[in-house]
Amino acid sequence: ASTGTPRPQEPPAYTAFSLYGGAAQASLGFGTGATAGLALRIKRESLPVLLRFDIMGSRFSQTPTAFGGTSVLSDKAALTHVGATASLELPIVNHGAIRPYLVAGGGVFRFQANGPAGNNGIISDGVFTATTDGALSAGGGVLLGRHVFVEARYITVGDFNSIPVVLGFVFR
Quick one: residue 167, left, alpha or beta (phi over 0 = left, psi -120 to 50 = alpha)? Predict the structure, then answer.
């Protein structure tokens, strides 16, 4: 007979929703912004991985930067980055209080920007345009107990990259 508190263990099959929020670091001079999302996790007894569907969004801003006394931007630019991904989540450890996992997948993200483009040479005429593009996502996280998780991912959409780091809660 064992003594002590039972260790949390994932059931062989379940469906769970997760809410998460945190901060994301973006490329193209947009710095750090707020990020939030919702995930549906589906585990089947016959599969070693979870099927995962995320809807997430981030909001970034780009501030004027001076080069040689002149400003590249005349005003702040803001970017909203919203998307959906379908991923596989691979648990590395299935029992214990701390359970790490890997996650990777793809999806679609929409960019909606306001303000000048500044020194971003790939956007013509110095003005942002809205666009929808395919995305790849990969990262990892740690489930703490049965309900709390911390996760970081690298999301790449064309020449734009972001690294969201989030704290979330799993509803079972």
Answer: beta
Give the residue ranges of the chain where pLDDT is below 50. Answer: 1, 66-71, 73, 118-126
Question: In this predicted model, what pLDDT tens digit does every residue of 96-123 receive, in sequence order?
Answer: 899 999 999 999 999 887 765 544 444 4
Q: What are phi and psi of 85, to 5 degrees?
A: -130, 150
| Tokens representing residue 109 in the block | 């993200």
Token pair recorded at residue 119: 């020194």
CA atoms of 172 and 18, how far apart (whole Å): 9
The CA distance from 16 to 87, in Å, is: 15
Q: For residues 74 and 79, what is the distance between their CA atoms, to the nearest angstrom?
A: 16
pTM of the model: 0.82
- Token digits of residue 53: 């569907």
